[in-house]
Amino acid sequence: MDLGISALSYVNSIKNDEFTVEEFISKSLERINQVDEKLHAFLRVNDLVIKNAREIDTKIKSNQNVGKCYGMPISVKDNICIEGSKTTCASKVLENFVAPYTSTVISKLNSEDAIIIGKTNLDEFAMGLSTEFSAYGPSRNPWNTDYVPGGSSGGSGVSVSANECIASLGSDTGGSIRNPASFCSVVGLKPTYGLVSRYGLVSYANSIEQIGPLTKTVEDSAFLLNIISGIDSNDNTTVDNKNQDYLNNIDAGISGKKIGIVTEMTNSEGLSTDVLNATNDAVKTFEKLGANCEQVSLQMIPYTVAAYYTITSTEAGSNLARYDNIRYGYEFDSSGFEFNSYISQARSKLGPEVIRRMILGGFVPSAGHAGKYFLKALKVKSKLIAEINHVFEKFDFLISSTVPIQPFKFGEKIQDPVSLMMVDFNTVTANLTGIPAISVPYKITNGLPIGIQIMANCLEEHSLLQAAYALEKTVDLPKVPV
Amino acid sequence: MKNLVNEEEISEVAKLMKIDLADHNDHIKRVQKMLEYFDILDNAGVESEEITVQETDLDKLRDDKYNPYDKNLLKFLKSYQGKYVKAPKLN
Amino acid sequence: MTKIGLEIHCQLTKLESKLFCSCKADYREFEPNTNICPVCMGIPGSLPLLNKSAVEKATLIAMALDCKTPGKIAFFRKNYFYPDLPKNFQITQLNAYGNTSIGWEGRILVEDKQIKIRRIQLEEDPGRLIYEGATEKTKLTLVDYNRAGTPLVEIVTDPDFETPHQVREFLNILSDLLENLNVSDPGLEGAMRADANVSIEGGSKVEIKNIGSFHDLEKAVHFEITRQHSLAERKIEIIQETRHWDDGRKITVSARTKEEEAEYRYHLEADIPWVRINDNTKNQLRAQMPESISSKKERYISKYDITPQVAGILASDRYFSELFEKANNETNAKDVANMITTDIMGLLDTREKREISKLEAGHLSDLAECVKSNKITRASAKLALDEIIKNGKPLSQIIEVLDLGHVSDESTLSDIISQVLNEEVKAAEDAKQNPETVNFLVGKVMQKTHGKADPELTLTLLKKNLDIE
Questions:
Q1: CB under 8 Å to A99, separation ≥6 — which residues?
Q2: Would residue A108 show up in a list of annotated catalytic residues for this protein?
Q3: Peptide bond before residue A152 is cis, with ω within 30 degrees of 0
Q4: Distances (CA, A) of A356 to A130, A308, A364, B19, C266
Q5: Which InterPro entries match (chain B) (predicted)?
């Protein structure tokens, strides 16, 4: 039984009686026990999984209707609510928070008989790109445990990459699915804004974030997208995907397609040589696949990181205001305290990066400064959207490396705030514009992964996945060393 | 070197956000650096842009129906005598 | 010149559910914290779901106040920390990025003065704070979130009012208007609250908050004007500030300046897309709007033979205007109207009384008929009303049971008159001297007959008996 198999292979194997759900789940739990002490992908493992597995096996044996997932083990980022289970967002301020309801995406997975095997680690409240900001300790890159796995959905990336589970759900606000996907050599998709319901996703920057899958293959990504996407009456920002089947024709190829190589993302100062080489290589590959590749420039890109952090810290400052420990949070009795001092003390448990974002978020939209920062950032966003729309009139896809650099060592980037922000340089554009973007594992250089990012216009996931599939098929990467 | 944002102002903002900066003075330096980076926005030339927003229609909104939440939500929360939520003293 | 402006908050109590979730809009019957859900409690990961009817009803209010209405509405977050705010921000409206609140630049006539409505916005009510414990040390702040998320319409006027009386008139007119539109029941406790801002000639504007009722509003405004004048007379500067109404001492007191320093970091509520309200929708809403009070009044005056004053009183009250319209058959309109304004309004002067009343339109039309045809007297009618309100029995039964039949039989009446004249010797003498005082004796006869005596006949017989004109 190979734990490294894809979701689709798993389903086939179960259908063909090659093993039972219980056997696979047991082996997965063993694997977690074996590797997770070092890797720390998981914050919590679900105790009831064997029971769930047995129930599904019974359903299968008695020829009842079984959901599409056939009991496959899926991990979920710990900022996505599941009723009755802790949802800490990797923060001390939510140490004891038990969600009273279940996210739409989880309900959908549950009704397709997925097994949620555990909650994965993240940068606290999804603010970060390396999982170093988790209040419960970082996760480690399975390709080299001295290196970060990326973030903020680091635990998700690790859990899939290290074969602790078949797939994972993460969230992407500025690259938080694609970045760990690239760093851990898995497939990571940020869907179009509104394609997947955010009901149950603890908000960080609600105008741009999305839940999305981290998987071993592109087909798996399409498979999960089929399940989790769609309009939701619990989320007014969801849009209709007209019941698309993202698996259908996924192997159609990209012959004749026009691909734009984003100049600003492929020639910036921050780009490492190895990553640049991989990108150029990918361009050649796309051309071999029959696509026409051409440089394209987007004027607003140099301003996107500043715009992104301005907008997200404003929204985060508001979204995290509710964590005053009065209604829920962690043990800390308010008796004898005065209101303002209690809240300040309670919030002092927020981690350093979150604290900085809170301060920024108080500053940039304030009456005296909004014009210079927040409003300008919104305008950059608008202009970028106009540029992107214009560019997609000519091109089918845009490409770049997912991250300008390869995984870095723990502690390496954490000191300089600006260089840390710049790691997001290639990914924030897709969030600011709402367009879908996917990271496909492309190379392993010096033992560390490099992913290629492909972007398409809004709601064009179907063709985006075709492009990703075509690229993936040209690549034969080594297995994870763990 | 351009003037960094005033330290005192940053402290005031922290108070507004109910963030106690007493133990965290290096945050101020980092925040200053980040704000300094944001100055780049001044060069974007976007003053005349309109902001873009998501839109919907009136008929897509939720119908006005009373649907009681089917659980005792208070059980999941911190409560006082099982009835109220206790808040710290207000001035 | 004194300038007064108002900021009124009205709950849309006629809605079924809250502004952003399906909990009940009217929270009053619930045990603490039992009318809540993940959305109105701001549980992490929850999202606001805008109530369609709230937008429609708020638009009706904007139209009724002659406001301009937008093609799209947007919502904003007003960020501040307070225990009654589950999210530590309030979702409200603002006219940034163009006009996106539910209405602006409207007007309403109050005693011949045109009051301009600056803007109307839709927003959510916070929860309620309850204080428990006697001493400073033991005092606990307890929160009940049942009210959190209740739909509010905030109406802001220009400082066009000049007197406290105008303010009071406006509030009455507004209450009637809201009730007539069937969007709110202003009589419900806490359904309408108001803040005021006051400035006198050349002085700074002072805000007054924490006013409990409309009655207090008039008092508070009056006090504040007086306070400002006395400062001005002593050449003391009137500081621009926020003051609170202290109901116990009946004065305004300076509130912490925290209010002025408030920084709300307003930004768009991204979880609610901008809602397009097209002209078609607006026309449909306008067509569905109930008849306005002023046009109802005009209609009553022209169609029925009733005075403008009575027409005005009826038209302003939704409950009674409905009763009037159902009960009258055009010929008896005047009697029905008078019966309502003279007797019934007094008997059913509160919400609670109206709720438990068993009086129906049919009773009223029967009653008007009976009085008109002299079957019973007006005085008896009042007794009958009392009974009908209590038990709703048909009029015929009540007349029988209470023996309300007209006493118009001359001999019976004569006997009673003789009795009265025997008992009231002095009054009889007075009446002989001064015929105008004979009404006292009429009254006594009415008393003896429990109001059933025909008053005209009684008067005639009395005069005959006393030999006066």
A1: A81, A82, A83, A84, A85, A86, A87, A200, C43, C44, C45
A2: no
A3: yes
A4: 16, 15, 12, 9, 20
A5: Asp/Glu-ADT_sf_sub_c (IPR036113)
Q: How confident is the model at residue B24 (pLDDT cuts 50, 70, 90)?
A: low
Do A113 and A69 touch, CB atoms closer than 8 A? yes
pLDDT in tens, A380-432: 999 999 999 999 999 999 999 999 999 999 999 988 999 999 999 999 999 99
Domains contained in chain C, CATH given:
3-282 (no CATH), 291-401 (no CATH), 410-466 (1.10.10.410)
Instruction: Please report the number of interchain residue pairs, chain A to chain C, with beta-carbon separation below 8 angstroms.
Output: 96
**Top-level CATH class of A7-250+408-413+436-473?**
alpha beta
> Is A340's Cβ below 8 Å from some Cβ in C?
yes
Going by their DSSP bridges, the two strands B85-87 and C206-209 should be labelled as unpaired
Contact check, Cβ <8 Å, A367/C263: yes
Element (DSSP H or E) covering residue C337: helix C333-339
Question: What DSSP state is assigned to residue A324?
Answer: S
Cα(C452)–Cα(C265) distance, rounded to whole angstroms? Answer: 72
The pair of structure tokens assigned to C349 is 């002067």
Strand partners, C152: C11, C123
For chain A, list the contacting chains (3+ Cβ pairs, <8 Å): B, C
Instruction: Name the residue ranges covered by the structural domains of chain B.
Output: 7-43
- Residue A228: closest CA among A69, A59, A371: A69
pTM, two decimals, is: 0.90
Quick one: closest CA in B to C35, which residue?
B68
**Paired tokens of A247:** 């698996």
Sheet with C72-73: list strands edge to edge.
B55-57, C274-276, C72-73
